[in-house]
Each structure stands twice: as structure tokens, then as C-alpha cells.
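sry for the spam today, last one i promise. C-alpha cells for design, 480 residues
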């Protein structure tokens, strides 16, 4: 079978201090000859129906958010009170950011109309790109919508939070209102870190936390072990005295499946953990079956966060192990894993899993700075397209060695010619944020369609039951 579907148009380049000017992104991976697309619903006919994107457009997000919040108790918020709507930068990277922005606007409208609160403010956390949420606030004009709106960085003033495991530190501005509402999304994103455990609780130890506390999550305890820090903060007397509830954009690889709202965060937590496993598990397992390919990075995000089929690139780097299986002690990529490599680039201990051997070369057509990414270039042959892009990486304090390991090509066609010749494969997968499917070469499309039924069957019968049992969610699956 030969695929003749045209590629899905990728998300356009975005002006940002963290990436090259969009005028320098002159050609996309989807523009290459022999590229096609495979729809997720064709690979997996049981893919969930999405409410966005769809015929109703962005109004579907507003309608679903209003409907979900009808069942949420807001009676504790009195006229004259202040409310912080807590958000994270992750949501703005999904589907162009507009659905998350619209959900935030709707939460504001519902809270204002139902409670008479004096101020409903937006407090948006971020990772290592300290100004990123400020760019999103400006792009979606959220300062004009909320009574106040600002981005929070993990180096901002902290506030001590006494927990059952000792003093941890949140961001003072996250908690400087009478009440807080946690507004997030279920995208599995950094599953190599959180391992789909306490997914809905994670921002209390990340986006809303000081860098000392969130670094405990990333580096001191490692994957699996660190999840309890977020739970400890959330369950603290201080946070519980302010917590109203949560509103979540529930995601699948193809788009937004539902809006979940509840005063009980742990109910949402169970829902998004369960849905994440069953919605993303088949895509993850299918990507694990790819035998060889050239990866194209082509999305307005830092290197590890570029998307394909709802999966970020660094999870494909670790797709040679089952990232959802909690018996897998160490993924091929986390900061914790990086620390187990010596200066010579070799593992210091024998059981460090290598990065995905199916990735034969990486063509970095468009991706941002602002996240330490030298590990990827060191372990995977990498070509960066354009001197402008190479320059910003060379001057990024977090990526001073990225170009030490990468080559520079003057344009995308030159980079691909080198990649084809060097690797001997014509299989290409583009991490370009294509919505509803995957942009791949014809040869890889045929592989994916041939392998998808097996991937689906193995997840349904073997893997999903194991993942759910490991997290104590088997009963939830039976109820569904």
C-alpha cells in the first residue's frame, strides 16, 4: 500500500526570545518530497472522539468548561475575596495554545459571575524559560481579560510550606490570594519523569514551586521516587486552606477529549492517569516498534518538547523501554540518567539504558533554546539547519555544548541529503506538532500501518492491565 495523503500542515513558527525569527524558518519537514501523513484514527480506529479541534471550533472548549464547572462548588468564595487561577506554560504548547487560553478565560468568567470575587488573577508558572509564560500572556491578551495576569519563574520569591515531610517551598505569588484554582492539562508530556503517577498533582511540586523544591523532583530523587513531594505540598494545611478545586483540559494524542472540573483533585488525578495510559499507550507502543528512522525537529518548543502524535521528542528518545511500566527503574533520558554518565560519555554503572537505537540521525530544523539539550546532540547524530539557529544555541547558557556535538547545514535540503546518505534509511518522522496525525515518509507510514494492529492488541490485552495494576487503577478500568 502506498500512501498518498498530503502532509498535515505543521504549527507555524512563533516569535519568541527562545527561537530564531520565523523568517529564518523557510522550509518545513512536511514540505520535503516523499512525505505523507497518517491519521491517528486510521492507525487506531478506537481512538477517542475529540471535542477540539472540531466543527464547533474554540466554542467547544468554552461550552465544555462551563458545563464541567456547573458541578463544582464555588460557595466558599465570597464577594470581595481574591482568587488566583494557577496555570502552567505546558498548556500553551498544545494545539497552538488557544484551547488552553480559552479554558482560562472561561474559568475567569464563571468564577466572576458565580461568586462576585473582587479579583480573579492569572498566575502562570514556567520551567527554565523564565519569560515564556509572559509571552503567552501577551499573545493571548490575557492581561486584558483577567483582573491581573503575570508569569511566575521558579527563582521568584518563595514561601515556606510546612508539610508532613518537612519544609518545602512554593512560589509566593501563586498563593497570595484568598483562594486558588488549579487549571492544567492531562498531556503526558514528561512521562519519563513523573511516570504517569500523580499526574494532576505534579504542578504543586513544579510550576508553583521554588527551584530548590522542584530540583528535588528532577535531580535528587529521580523518576518514580520524587512524585510524593508534589503530593506533600498539595496536602499541606496551608495549600488546603486555599484550594477550591481544579479544571483540566483532558488530552488524547488527537486533541482535547473533555474538560474535567472538580473540588476533589484526586478524582481528576485518577481520571487523567487512567485516560493518559489508554489514550497515549498505543502511540507510545507503536513508536517503540520503529526499527530505524531520521527524526526531524520542527516545532516552536525547546528540543525535548517538540511534538509528534501527541508525544514529545524526549519520550521517543526513551521509547526503546516501556516508560509507563513502573518496573522499569530508569528511562534512557532524564536529568537523573544524565548524571550516571561520565565525562567520557560512557555510563558509570552497567544498567543505564541507552537512548533509542532506532534514531539514526536528528535533523534540527526548528526548535528553541531554554532547556539543557546537549545530552541529545551528544548521544544522537544531530544536524542543525542554519547558522542563525546554531548561533542562538552557542550563546544559550543552558546549551553551551550543544553545537560541540552537532553539525551545521545551510538549509533543510542539504541536511536531509546528508542524513539519507549517512544513515542509509529513507524513513523519516517529523516532530512538528501536526494535529490529528503524524507526518512521516511514505516508507515509515507503511511500517506504522502494518504494525498498528499488533500495537493496539498488545496494549489492550497485556500492557494496559499491567500499567493500571501498578497504579491501583484496575477498579477504575472495570467501572469504565
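last one done:
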Amino acid at each position: 500500500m502506498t500512501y498518498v495523503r498530503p502532509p498535515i500542515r505543521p504549527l507555524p513558527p512563533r516569535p519568541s526570545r527562545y527561537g530564531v525569527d520565523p523568517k529564518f524558518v523557510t522550509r518545513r519537514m512536511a514540505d520535503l518530497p516523499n512525505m505523507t501523513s497518517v491519521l491517528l484514527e486510521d492507525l487506531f480506529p478506537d481512538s477517542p472522539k475529540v471535542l477540539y479541534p472540531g466543527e464547533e471550533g474554540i466554542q467547544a472548549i468554552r461550552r465544555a468548561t462551563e458545563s464541567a464547572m456547573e458541578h463544582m462548588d464555588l460557595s466558599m468564595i465570597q464577594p470581595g475575596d481574591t482568587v488566583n487561577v494557577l496555570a502552567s506554560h505546558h498548556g500553551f504548547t498544545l494545539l497552538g495554545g488557544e484551547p488552553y487560553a480559552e479554558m482560562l478565560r472561561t474559568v475567569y468568567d464563571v468564577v466572576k459571575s458565580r461568586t462576585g470575587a473582587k479579583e480573579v488573577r492569572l498566575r502562570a508558572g514556567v520551567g527554565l524559560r523564565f519569560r515564556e509564560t509572559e509571552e503567552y500572556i501577551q499573545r493571548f491578551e490575557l492581561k486584558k481579560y483577567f483582573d491581573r495576569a503575570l508569569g511566575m519563574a521558579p527563582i521568584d520569591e518563595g514561601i515556606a510550606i510546612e508539610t508532613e515531610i518537612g519544609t518545602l517551598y512554593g512560589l509566593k505569588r501563586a498563593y497570595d490570594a484568598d483562594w486558588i484554582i488549579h487549571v492544567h492539562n492531562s498531556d503526558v508530556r514528561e512521562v519519563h519523569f513523573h511516570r504517569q503517577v500523580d499526574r494532576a498533582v505534579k504542578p504543586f511540586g513544579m510550576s508553583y514551586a521554588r527551584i530548590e523544591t522542584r530540583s528535588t523532583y528532577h535531580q535528587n530523587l529521580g523518576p518514580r521516587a520524587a512524585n510524593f513531594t508534589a503530593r506533600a505540598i498539595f496536602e499541606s494545611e496551608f495549600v488546603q486552606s486555599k484550594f477550591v478545586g481544579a479544571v483540566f483540559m483532558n488530552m488524547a494524542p488527537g486533541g482535547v477529549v473533555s474538560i474535567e472540573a472538580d473540588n476533589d483533585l484526586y478524582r481528576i488525578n485518577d481520571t487523567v492517569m487512567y485516560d493518559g495510559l489508554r489514550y497515549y499507550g498505543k502511540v507510545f507502543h507503536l513508536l517503540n516498534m520503529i526499527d530505524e528512522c531520521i527524526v526531524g525537529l520542527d516545532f516552536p518548543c525547546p528540543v525535548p518538547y517538540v511534538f509528534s502524535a501527541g508525544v514529545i521528542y524526549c519520550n521517543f528518545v526513551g521509547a526503546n523501554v516501556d516508560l509507563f511500566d513502573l518496573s522499569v527503574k530508569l528511562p534512557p533520558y532524564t536529568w537523573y540518567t544524565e548524571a550516571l554518565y561520565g565525562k567520557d560519555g560512557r555510563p558509570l554503572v552497567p544498567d543505564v539504558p541507552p537512548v533509542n537505537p532506532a534514531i539514526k540521525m536528528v535533523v534540527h530544523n526548528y526548535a528553541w533554546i531554554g532547556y539543557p539539550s546537549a545530552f541529545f546532540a551528544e548521544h544522537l547524530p544531530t544536524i542543525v539547519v542554519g547558522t542563525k539557529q546554531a548561533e542562538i544555541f552557542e550563546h544559550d547558557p543552558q546549551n553551551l555544548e550543544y553545537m560541540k556535538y552537532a553539525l551545521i547545514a545551510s538549509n533543510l535540503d542539504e541536511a536531509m541529503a546528508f542524513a539519507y546518505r549517512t544513515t542509509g534509511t529513507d524513513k523519516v518522522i517529523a516532530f512538528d506538532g501536526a494535529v490529528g496525525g503524524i507526518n512521516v515518509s511514505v516508507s515509515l507510514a507503511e511500517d506504522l500501518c502494518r504494525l498498528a494492529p499488533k500495537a493496539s492488541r498488545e496494549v489492550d490485552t497485556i500492557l494496559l492491565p499491567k500499567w493500571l495494576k501498578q497504579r491501583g487503577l484496575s477498579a477504575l478500568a472495570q467501572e469504565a
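The longest helix spans residues 442-470. ok im logging off now
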